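Hi support team,

I submitted a single chain yesterday and got back a structure, but I'm not sure I'm reading the token output correctly. Could someone confirm the output below corresponds to the sequence I sent? I've pasted both exactly as they appear in my results page.

Thanks,
R.
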Amino acid sequence: MSYNVLSPKLLETHSYLYQDIDPEVLKWDNRKNIFFEEISTLKPDIVCLQEVEESLFGPVYQEKFKTWGYSGVFKKRTRDKEDGCAIFYNSKKFRLLDKLTVEFFQPHIPLLNRDNVALLVKLEAKNARSGNKLVVGTTHLLFNPKRHVSDILISFEFVKS
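Hi R., thanks for writing in. Yes, this is the structure output for that exact sequence:
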């Protein structure tokens, strides 16, 4: 499962983007409760999140997911950004083998002068006889129609150390 949870601080900073939306719908407590209710109902094995506010990762997300038997990792966006990406996985079903974080920020390259990041995990199924492994990744890339972007290929490789 994957969600952009819309960081409360980003909502506050960019409120003009949401001016046509009912303010009740945008309240953090309402959105948080609906999100957690959906996760607890569907019980996905893996959840990828974008726009997770760093200050809420541990005390809100990690604590809640822990009660359901999940473990999680987080990568904050670069520079002064207050949000990032997170991946939670059912720790009864998977064991974390490796984690990779990627920072795309390159100030002198117009295509990469944003604070985008990626987060990848390498998981192993605990009950798999053959030691099946799975790589899961999440990222949140800024889209701007004014920026001319041609095809971009981003490749990640886990190297056994």
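A quick pointer for reading it: The chain has a mean pLDDT of 89. Let us know if anything else looks off.

Best,
Support desk
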